[in-house]
From TrEMBL:
This is medium-chain acyl-CoA ligase. It is an enzyme of class 6 (ligase). It comes from the Eukaryota. Coiled coil: none annotated. SUPFAM superfamilies: Acetyl-CoA synthetase-like. PROSITE patterns: AMP_BINDING. It catalyses: a medium-chain fatty acid + ATP + CoA = a medium-chain fatty acyl-CoA + AMP + diphosphate.
Length: 624
């Protein structure tokens, strides 16, 4: 099994080439004014003359919904020039998008008979809800939030649920009531939950019977929480908790959606916290509700006839990207399989059984699936596949395409944004690349002073926000104006990642800005070394950081988890063997001069390696 996992984590680092084109974007200027809401920004009710237009409009969203949901991104440069996304003064995804699809559905003009939500589980359950069903059911849940949970507009709601149908209803209900949704992963500990409830000043917590006991451990230390709603699959009740199913049965089915300004706070996401305490990033009705039209149309390539399966769990921003806003902005069907854990064979069996047309999965899932015999499965319904998180090696991409006929399109974004770059279907594929800037965004590689760098030079990934700010960018971090300010440099918002742009405008990921190792004048990204390490059969998992060195200032150090077959090997001999292996795979100066073997690596709840912890350990030892 360890050998299989080792093969599944092979990475490919593409050749760094030169240059990025600067493409300007016009949009409204956002000015954040408080920790939870945005005041009005510079009014702009007329279109600008620039070809990439994102201008404010007072026209109803439904007047351009059909145009936005149309496919046809066949020419990258033309698509960017023609890109246009009007931002109304008032916008609500529930009333202006979902309810419009319900109206089209009822009138027979949606253009598809697929459900809006198709949910299955391992026990044979098969639920299909139309947009009309979503409309009716979410109105009942909205009344529960208002009448039973005693929630008012602008109050926050923390939702910690597995991939059950009610998660989607609660999300829509928050939109309808103007309450601020805070998704949370089901992997959180009791202390994690306490921190999130306290820092977000949550007014209501919604979860299941498995997480409720964890909530109650510290609920007395969370004075902002005034109601707790239990969605139990077992039917059990819990003292001090409202029973969702009981309330749903008697809830009023009539509800009028609140009228929300585009600049009002809509959702807040805790970031992964790879560099410290998790930050709470705020998105508005425009930044996520409208911004993910870009994700759904250009990267996911969706239309109302598509059945889209995204494997992300509900606690992550990727679920908003690809399980909610992106697909439903296009009127597509969201397909969900609720399973206890990922299994490549079971996943392929589902793809064989169900007519999934577009697939979004993490790199590891593809690496594991291509190790199976794909010829055993009928995968012809899949027409478009995407992945994000880390580069996929070309062997995996080629195997997947050979087995399905579909190429994997990689993309890049973060919690604070919608999709920023992608290997769009109209682009020439380049394995290992993040692709090019998404329509609506001007992406540049910048130096420490915010100046754009020339071709081929490594720097920080910057999103141009001046003179105009693009739709699809978060507003601020809650209660942290200093950290919000540090996210900007000159005319750019900095993602915190570093990359190189080639002469054709393709971007190549290097690593997190604070993970870069500077040794003897060489700047080395950890992913480059980790990608070489994982090709050695002894390496099950690795993390590369800087380590102090009296001669070179700092050197590359690798923390390695060994596969089972190599745990009893002589460590000194194995260290030399691994070092020589890296020298043979990549530039010799990148090899790890120090290696430490570990039983496991420190990780965040989302599974990301906490390199900062390992790096601090190294440098604190020097100080000590």
């Amino acid at each position: 099994m360890a050998a299989i996992l080792k093969q599944c984590r092979l990475l490919h680092i593409g050749q760094f080439r030169q240059s990025i084109r600067q493409l300007h974007l016009n949009s409204r200027k956002l000015v954040w004014a408080s920790n939870k809401t945005l005041r009005s920004y510079t009014p702009c009710c007329t279109r600008t003359s620039h070809p990439l237009k994102v201008a404010a409009s007072h026209q109803p969203v439904r007047t351009f919904l059909s145009a936005l949901s149309a496919t046809g991104f066949n020419d990258y440069e033309l698509g960017r020039r023609q890109f246009q996304l009007d931002v109304p003064e008032y916008f609500n995804f529930a009333s202006d998008v979902l309810d419009v699809w319900a109206q089209k559905e009822q009138a027979g003009t949606r253009g598809s008979k697929t459900p809006a939500l198709w949910w299955i589980d391992d026990h044979g359950s098969d639920i299909k809800w139309s947009f009309t069903d979503l409309q009716d059911k979410s109105k009942k849940v909205a009344n529960i939030l208002t009448n039973d949970c005693d929630l008012s507009r602008d109050e926050s709601v923390t939702v910690i649920l597995h991939r059950i149908p009610e998660w989607w209803l609660v999300n829509i209900a928050c939109l309808r009531t103007g309450t601020i949704l805070i998704p949370g992963t089901t992997q959180l500990t009791a202390r994690d939950i306490r921190y999130r409830l306290q820092s977000s000043e949550t007014a209501c917590i919604i979860t299941d019977e498995h997480t409720a006991p964890l909530v109650d451990e510290y609920i007395s230390e969370c004075p902002s929480v005034k109601s707790k709603l239990l969605i139990s699959s077992s039917g059990e009740s819990r003292p001090g908790w409202l029973d969702y199913h009981e309330l749903y049965e008697k809830a009023d089915s009539q509800h009028k959606c609140v009228k929300t300004r585009s600049d009002e706070s809509m959702t807040m996401f805790f970031t992964s916290g790879t560099t410290g305490k998790a930050k709470l990033a705020v998105h508005t009705h425009a930044s996520y509700g409208l911004g993910h039209f870009i994700t759904g149309k250009y990267w996911l390539d969706l239309t109302p006839t598509d059945i889209h399966w995204n494997m992300s769990d509900t606690g992550w921003a990727k679920s908003a990207y690809s399980n909610f806003f992106g697909p439903w902005a296009q009127g597509a069907c969201v397909f969900i399989s609720y399973t206890a854990r990922f299994d490549p064979v079971h996943t392929l069996e589902l793809l064989h059984k169900y007519p999934v047309s577009t697939l979004c999965a993490p790199p590891t899932a593809y690496r594991m699936m291509v190790l199976e015999d794909l010829s055993k499965y009928n995968l012809k319904s899949i027409r478009h596949t995407v992945s994000a998180g880390e580069p996929l090696n070309p062997e995996v991409m080629e195997s997947w395409k050979a087995g399905t006929g579909s190429m994997i399109h990689e993309g890049y974004g973060q919690t604070e944004t919608v999709l920023l770059t992608g290997m769009f279907r109209c682009l020439e594929p380049r394995s290992g690349s993040m692709g090019k800037a998404a329509p609506g965004f001007d992406i540049s590689i910048v130096d420490e002073d915010g100046n754009e760098l020339p071709h081929g030079q490594e720097g920080d990934i910057g999103v141009r926000v001046k003179p105009h700010r693009p739709v699809g960018l978060f507003s601020h971090y809650v209660n942290d104006p200093e950290r919000t300010a540090r996210a900007y440099r000159g005319d750019f918002y900095l993602t915190g990642d570093r990359a190189v742009a080639d002469d054709d405008g393709y971007l190549w990921f290097v690593g997190r800005g604070d993970d870069i190792i500077n040794t003897s004048g060489y700047r080395i990204g950890p992913f480059e070394v980790e990608s070489a390490l994982i090709e050695h059969p002894a390496v099950a998992e690795s993390a590369v950081v800087s380590s102090p060195d009296p001669k070179r200032g700092e050197v590359v150090k690798a923390f390695i988890v060994l596969t089972a077959d190599y745990k009893s090997e002589d460590k000194e001999q194995l260290t030399q063997e691994i070092q020589n292996h890296v020298k043979s795979i990549t530039a010799p100066y990148k090899y790890p001069r120090k290696i430490e073997f570990m039983e496991s690596l420190p990780k965040t709840v989302s599974g990301k390696i906490r390199r900062v912890e390992l790096r601090n350990q190294e440098w604190n030892q020097k100080v000590g």
